[in-house]
Amino acid sequence: MIATTRIPLRQSRPVWLALMLAVLLLLCALSVAIGTRDVDWPDIIAALQGRIDNISQAAIAARIPRSLLALLAGAALGLSGAVMQGITRNPLADPGILGVNMGAALAVAIGVAWFGIVSAQAYIWVAILGAGLAAVFVYTIGSVGRGGATPLKLALAGTATSVAFSSLVVAVILPRNDIAGGIRLWQVGGVGGATMERMSHVLPFLAVGFVLSLISAKKLNALALGDDMAAGLGERVALARASAALGAILLCGATTAVCGPIGFVGLVVPHLCRLLIGIDHRWLLPFSALIGACLLLASDIIGRIIARPNELEVGIVTAFIGAPFFIWIVRRQRLRDL
């Protein structure tokens, strides 16, 4: 019998990190190169240097901010999903499943339809407010009854809230034919039409969200041991949860404001990362951001290829990827363990 050797987890993490960075660079190059118009590498190089001498170079110049937005949004959603799963100790936690994305979407729909908001800053603040209120609402509902906020109750409360908020979005925009088309398209979730100006408004919020989420890694490791053990180790449990949740809400709200509600990235990515590098949040959080960026870039590229000369919005592609994965997780977990 041939002996097999297994690379220790600690030694494999740098290998996976280098591999995923290489994949990310490859996907960035493909995202710039692939679209409804075929382009040559000389045009790509010229566009990256800031030259727009022909239609191909103009097309590439439009793809660059789109690729950057997909990278940032994927990283934000992957990281926020890992944080939410760590806070709730819930394998089904996800900005979409817990209703956070739809809370942001409902707040934006109300702001546009009833208050006439038009500025990018207003979109972002309203979306973050909606995401925060939705998170508090779902956690409050999931905490009612015996056992407190169990993973199963949070998942059920979040799913019901998402459905209710989605219906409310339709009810809000239905009488407004002047904005209904734009809101419905935005509600699908996508990165098309991205510009550097749009991203400049959202970058400060994403930066704060990334920092708050990444520095919560040690706190999430303590919370994974249970509230009593975390308190015994000197952690302020409520403060630890609140600071980590604030980072996740900023990431979700800001991403939803600029891209619309994109689902399942925050669910799929943390599970994949745990298979690769384990459960230590000091590694899990940055890996979730990295692989989330790869997943959304790849989904955007797939959406451009399979529907050429048209394209599928990235939110549709991630739903096709994430829905079977969600079913697999539910079937894999015992109901009492959820």
From TrEMBL:
SUPFAM superfamilies: ABC transporter involved in vitamin B12 uptake, BtuC. GO terms for molecular function: transmembrane transporter activity. Its main location: membrane. It is found in: Cell membrane. Keywords: Cell membrane, Membrane, Transmembrane, Transmembrane helix, Transport. GO terms for biological process: siderophore-iron import into cell. The keyword Membrane applies. One of its GO terms (cellular component) is plasma membrane. The chain crosses the membrane at residues 64-84, 96-117, 123-142, 154-174, 199-217, 238-263, 283-302, 314-331. It is a multi-pass membrane protein. Belongs to the binding-protein-dependent transport system permease family. FecCD subfamily. This is Iron ABC transporter permease. It comes from Paracoccus caeni.
